[in-house]
Amino acid sequence: MEKNDVVSHWVQGSEADKAAAEGLYKLGHYNWSLFIWHLVIEKVLKAKIVSINKEISITHDLTRLAKEAELDINQERMDEFKEITGFNLEARYDDYKLSFYKKADKTYTDEWISKCENLFKWIKNQITL
């Protein structure tokens, strides 16, 4: 596969997941919406990594992927990546699910969806082919 095809694959995957996250939100499944938002950010970061001719690490850690993507990241953004990485663990594993379900109320979810949308656009705008 050509580099542009791989980048497009990751971007298209992130956009499809974004639509799924939005649908879950509308249904009131806030914890699962945030889980999918993690995937959105992960995939767009992987597109950025491929776009700079680097190998993608097999990880779901967004802070690590953001560093590998060579993004200019301040501490606030790094903290956002860290929190969003937690959505992957907290929605998936039984010992975290109940506390995350309680945490992911509408207010929390609205705040973090806004942050995810901003990160998604910011990263996507930095992808060059």
TrEMBL record:
Superkingdom classification of source: Bacteria
PROSITE patterns in alphabetical order: HEPN (PS50910)
Coiled coil regions, renumbered to chain: none
HEPN domain: residues covered: 11-123
InterPro entries registered for this protein in UniProt: HEPN_dom
Protein name from the UniProt record: HEPN domain-containing protein
